[in-house]
Amino acid sequence: MQIPPVADYLIVAAALFVVGVVGFLVRRNPITMLMAIELMWNAGNLAFAAFARSFGDMSGQVFVFIVITVAAAEAAIALAIVVMVFRRRRDADVDDISVMRG
Amino acid sequence: MLIDTVIFLPLATAIVLLAIPRTAHNALKGVALAGAVATFALSLAFINLGTSVAADQNVPWIQTLWTAAYHVRVDGVRLFFILLTTLVAAVSIWGAFSYDQPERLRGYLCLLLAFETTLLGVFTAADLLLFYIYWDLMLIPVFLLLTGFSGTAEARRAAWSYLIYNGAGGLVLLLGIVALVAHTHTFEPAATLSLPARTAWWIFAAFALAFAIKTPLFPFHAWMPPTYTFAPAPVVALVSGVQSKAGLFGLLAFALPLFPQAAHAWAPVLLILATAGILYGALAAIGEQDVKTLVGFSSLSHLGLVWLALFAFDMTSVPAGILMIVSHGLIAAALFLLLGFIEERTGTRDLARFGGLAWQAPRLAVFLLIAAMAALGLPGLSGFAGEFLILIGSWQTQPVFTALALVAIVLASVYMLKLFQGTMHGPQRLGQAAPSVRDLRPRELALVAPLLAGIVFLGVWPAWLNDRTPSQVTAAAAVTRVGGVPDSPHAAHTASAARKAAAGLQMQTARRADGMVAEAGS
Amino acid sequence: MTAFAGVTISWPALAPILVLTGAGLLIMLVDLVSRATLRGLLYGIGILGAVGAGLTMLPLYGHSVTTLAGAFASDRFSWLFDLVLLGSLAVTLLLSSLRRAEDGGSPGAYAALLVFAAIGGMVMAGAANLMIIFLGLEQLSLALYVLAGMGYPRAASQEAALKYVLLGSLASAFLIFGSALLYGSSGGLSLDAVHAAASVPSGLFVTGLALFVVGIGFKLALAPFHSWVPDVYEGSPLAVTAFMAVAVKAASLAVLARVTYVVFGHDTSALAPLWLLAIISMLVGNVGAIRQRNLKRLLGYSSIAQVGYMVVGLAGVGPQGLSALAFYLVAYALTTLGAFAVMALLADGGEEYADLGAYPGLAARRPWPAAAMALFFFSLAGIPATAGFYGKLLLLAEGLAAGPWGLALDVTLVVGTVVSLYVYGKIVWDMYSFTEPEAVVPTGNALPSWVAVAAGALGTLVLGLAPQLFAMSQPFLSVGPR
Amino acid sequence: MMTDTFAQTAPFTILFLPLLGMLVIAVVGPRVHRAASAAIANLAVLGAFALTVALALDVWHRPPSDQVLTVTYPPAWAAHQQFWAHIPPLTVSFELRIDGLSLAWMLIVTGVGFLIHLYSVGYMLDSRWYRTFFAYMNLFIFAMLLLVMAGNFLWLLVGWGGVGLASYLLIGFDMHRPAAVAAARKALIMNVIGDVGIMLAMFLLFAHFGSLSYKEIFANVTAAGTPALNWIGIWLLLGAVAKSAQLPLHTWLPDAMEGPTPVSALIHAATMVTAGVYLVARAHPIYDHAPAAAQAVAVVGCATAFFAATIGCVQYDIKRVLAYSTMSQIGYMVLAVGVGAYAAGTFHFITHAFFKALLFMAAGIIIHNLGGEQDIRNMGGLARRLPFAFWAFLVGTLALCGVFPFSGFFSKDAILDQLLVLHHPVLWAFGTATAALTAYYMFRLLFMTFFTGGFRGKAQTHAGTVASMSVPVALLIGLALVGGWIVVPGHDGLTPLLRAAFADTGTMAALDHFSGIVSLAALGAGLVGFVAAYLLYERPSGLRPTLRRSLQPVRNLLANAYYVDATYHWLFEVPVLTLASDIARYLDPEAVAGGAAAVARTATAAGDAVRLWEAGYVRRYGLSMLVGVVIVLALFLYLAGGTAALGGR
């Protein structure tokens, strides 16, 4: 089958990335915000994979794997923290979590 | 080596003080005074060495992308700055004995001594990095003295204007020094002929701005009135008597010899500022009701005269500038100390509340009279010698500014009489506030006496000082001088003297490779 | 020098990381077998690990080795930064040894995380490859996310952790996407490949570079990517804050320096936006610190400004730029760690001594800690005879050699320093002014804190009075023409 | 040769004896009896006088060529080291110049000075600051001697300032009286203006001659052009005017009468105020080649003589009348030296010292006995109460009015005569007219004080005059009588003594030239004045009130001294003080310090702004990051050549 050019993948990746950014900014629930961030990371992955494919170069794909791994660790830690916060205060609205300021 | 001893003896004394319990007041006082007096005595040894280099020590320090050295020197330019420092410091430390917070006396004396060391460092440094280090270190003791040892809230506020203003000036100076070193790759004041004129113009501007803030030169004096007014008398005596001379020293020892052309380019601006300051300070002093602020403004006026002297580039006025510097140091210290005594006794600085003190304190009155008359420029006292020699020189090159400065001399008589008569003469107004003002104690008498002695001595024999000020100074003027008074014998005199000075310089240059002087001579 | 699966490995270059990893694992092991009684031992192991790693680094001095198929290097760009990382690790562990059980978190996890964070930093410093940079950066960050929350009994600590993890991940996303674009524009992950692409910058390359700079700028806390700093610094446990303030910046600066020099040999015109960020940081950092009442926040803001200063060293990519940056980094590390150490000394593991309301009149009650604190602040303000002064001197010189942008950076540096005179002077002013003797006199006197304070003060003075000692390393740190 | 060593050393002994006296009093005074300090002071001045006489005899017995000594101190240094200033090209040494001119002044200063010291011993007895007074008096003698003995303009200026200081201290001697304090301030400030004038002259002298020494300047005075010399002369005149209370800087002298009477006698009548005359006479080589300046001098002197006399006609304070008469008489001297009649000027200075000192002392006796009363409207009929004072005052008056054969006659006559000889008829006319006014106001004073019916005051005369006061007065009566006889028709005893000092001037006419017209005119004018005073004050008639009414405006004008004081007040004092206080109160705090404060406020406000933005909201932080991203991205792309590059690759 015919592989679309890199540009198309890039456009999709960029779109994903922007969606992620917007998601981070508009949502107030930390978990949702984390999901938005995952979206952005995966946008990066997509771009990497596309380039790697087009170059026929493995290193880009290795990078993708590493990102996925790190993302897992990241999610674990982030969720742990969210749970910790949630335990102290029954809700988890990041806008209320602003004791420190100034 | 003697020179290091002189520089660091005060600091060492301060460290010794730290070993003495804070409550042993007499021990503290004794040690502090002994250290300060010893420093003064040692520094006297430099006099005999006359205009030749009295002491010169050059230890390599940093040699990487640029070279810096621990290079200290006592020569004709520096000699009298050093003597002034050691004398005024000793006197001020003695004056600090009547400090009213005994539990803090130790820190107070320590900081005064540390301050003396930084001052001596500035005046001995022959290496720009060393000079700058001491220059900026001067901030700390004064800032702490204002903050923690003056007690009053105003003084603590004054600490800010002092720190920020002088700190900013210091950083501008640093920028200038770095810009210079980027070209010469050495902090030794070296020949800068290679320096592009435009760069030199900028660097000199940076130097001049820093020095103008320190002196202070109108209109960079915003920090001066609060500091002089609210700091304890001994501190003000040191700050106005000695530290204010650091800027002028910088001009004489570094800025003028390094950038003669740039100095010349800037002269018009600086002359205007100087003259404006001379008149502005005099007028402000006339209008002032607080005695210490009044004296502060009077020094603004008098030190403006020194700027006039330096940037008139006259063979006579420039060396006379040094005379004026020393004279003003003695006068300002004496005035501030005496006013400090008055404030201790009456608890006020407001002229509206004084009057007739001479009835109860005739000796105090006589001392204040001498100091005030010296500041007023009475012929026969050092103030006159400085003013007259400066103006007779500057008249030859800058008659207009000189004429304006003469107006300030008349104004000086107005504000100095306002100060003296307002406090000492007229009906006694203090009434119940100070039922009986006691006359000068022996200690106070003895500690002001040396200053007054110096004032009289330099008044009747200024040549003693001038014979010991070096040819570099005159040469600094000679090389930068243009014009003068043509078709008059004076011009001839000047030219020949300039040649003589330059010749002497070449010899000195040969004697010790000194880029600064080489520059001055070339 | 052995070969493994066709890839040559230079063990000496990896030794420090390996030693430290061993120490980390050992800590976890000891933590398994022993209960809280052996808390001191855990930190001790960490410190020994740091020292050992430092020793293994000595032979690396003066050499530049690349290994793991050019992915990792031990050279002038990593060496000194690694030392700073190890030093800050040691000091942090020293200060942490005052932690109590009720501070939350198991000591073992805490110590191990610190060690692994340091390892992450060292990986960053040595990374010659976009992937390794990301790897190290994430290891450092993930550990710190947790450590920030290690004071979880305090709500502030939790909040700090949450904010840090959310914003940090966001920044990482930019880094990843930027790396992807750089990869796409250069066809390789190694910095050399990126350098090749830099010679003819395409839009793809430039965009990638921009996003990459954003990612690093966040870790460096360059304005306007600094907003997380004050909150995270205030919330995290004292020792962790100290570690963040020094280690994270050291590692990120190493990356930045390497990228600047390796990717953009001598022409940094493309990096101009970075200089702009530095200028904004100097202003925001110093101005923001003016009205702070919490010392940890204040030091956070000041660190923002200090990083701005350090970037000036890179502006000229002159041969001495790296050493200027390195000198100031060392000075900054000494003074910052010292300041935190004084706080720890006064806090003595208990109620953190961060509220500036507690400082007035301190000099009268605790003269020596006050004097040390004053010394550190003078150094941060660049008063002569302290390390900070000579560092500023070097940076200003670099700036002047860097054309118009450099001049702008220098002027901003001066202006910022004037503002900082007030910021730091205010605390000295407080400590030394008259006040009624407070009811509670801080009695903290713990030996570890004293050791840290003394080390910081000594280093600050020595480097200030005898900078040539450091300058001896200049031949190694000076970057020849590429 | 003994005389030469004497001539070398004597001047310094003379000069420093009074200084020594002052120092001794200042140091040991408080420990010894007050009489001791008085004795020290008197002995110091007496010794100076004796030495001066000896020196004068020594000098005048030399050949004329040798009558000008210049002595440098210390002699050994004359060659290589300068005592005062040594900043090449400027060198100023400490040199004294002894010649006829300075000797004349030295003799009067020490001689009359001694008499007044003696007088003060009794007069000041009940003063709280007895010792201080004598210390100040000695200081004055020293400064005045330095002024007249100086060998270059610098040391002249030093003495000039010194007498200014002494006069300041002694005017304000009653420091608790605001009036005295104000008068002292006024005197010093006006004198400083004069000092500035002399300084300017010295600047020009240095510029044109490269020296400040009389010898070098006068030797080649023609080296500088006439314009320059005119300027120098004008600036010197400014100094002279200030010191000698000539128009327009005369307003301080009447107020100076706030000082104790001996001070008025010594400083503000006999010696200091004549320093201006000395200065012009001393600088005569300059004025001889500066016609315009000399003209100015003469005009100023003449105008002062006349106007001061007119003011004197309506004053009621006995000392103020004498003060105005002093101004007027000094006007005569300045006029004389202005036209080049240096000997005549000197002559009048000598006689004036005698009779004016006498008048003040007599007035002092009156004031002393009336317990400080000075207003002649509260006196009258004192001739019988204080006969001694009356006779003294009478002699003084006759001398002042130039009645033959009193001393004033010869000196004033010499001046008027020279005016005609040197072809200044207008000035002569004014001079003669002034003589009439002089006679009028002096006799008006005499009548109102000693006659015109009985005593009008309340103050009772208390204890009579002590010997220490009457002896010097008696001596001065004699001097005022015979003092003028050194110059009698056919014999001029003064000019030869001065000849050497004025060797280089052409206008040194002998004083023994008498012309009947001049003398008769002067005497006639005096007679007119006397008659007028007699009719108005001794013969009560309707004349006086009618005159009063018709001349009221003139009276006001004169009584207010032509409103010069008021003019200065509104012209200089008020504007300067207003400006000054505005600067100190508003401009400096607001503009200069305020500017700094504004910067500080701005920084603080910015700090608050940063804190406000840092509100703790994660999403806001994210937003700020994003803004940063956009900016950075845009910048990067822009610098990389704009969007065009996007298409690249």
Structure description:
The complex is a heterotetramer of chains A (102), B (522), C (482) and D (649). With 102 residues, chain A is mainly alpha-helical. Chain A has helices spanning 6-26, 30-55, 58-88. Chain A has one domain (6-91): Helix Hairpins. In chain A, helix 1 (6-26) packs antiparallel against helix 2 (30-55) and helix 2 packs antiparallel against helix 3. Chain A is elongated. Chain C is mainly alpha-helical. Chain C has one domain (8-469). Chain C has 20 helices and four strands. The mean pLDDT of chain C is 89. Chain D has helices at 2-28, 34-60, 100-123, 130-149, 153-171, 178-209, 214-219, 226-243, 252-256, 261-270, 275-282, 284-288, 291-312, 318-339, 342-369, 382-385, 387-400, 407-421, 425-450, 467-482, 495-499, 516-538, 543-550, 552-559, 564-613, 618-639, 644-647, and strands spanning 69-73, 85-87, 90-92, 94-98, 487-488, 491-492. In chain D, the strands form three sheets. A two-stranded antiparallel ribbon of chain D has the order 1-4. Chain D has a two-stranded antiparallel sheet with strand order 2-3. In chain D, a hairpin with a 2-residue loop joins strand 2 (85-87) and strand 3. In chain D, helix 15 packs antiparallel against helix 18 (407-421) and helix 15 (342-369) packs antiparallel against helix 20. The chains are: A mainly alpha (102), B mainly alpha (522), C mainly alpha (482), D mainly alpha (649).
Quick structural gist:
Chain B is mainly alpha-helical and 522 residues long. Chain B has helices at 2-19, 25-44, 76-95, 105-124, 128-137, 139-148, 153-184, 197-214, 224-230, 233-243, 245-258, 260-287, 291-311, 317-346, 357-360, 362-376, 382-397, 399-424, 442-460, 462-466, 471-480, 489-511, 515-521, and strands at 55-63, 67-74.
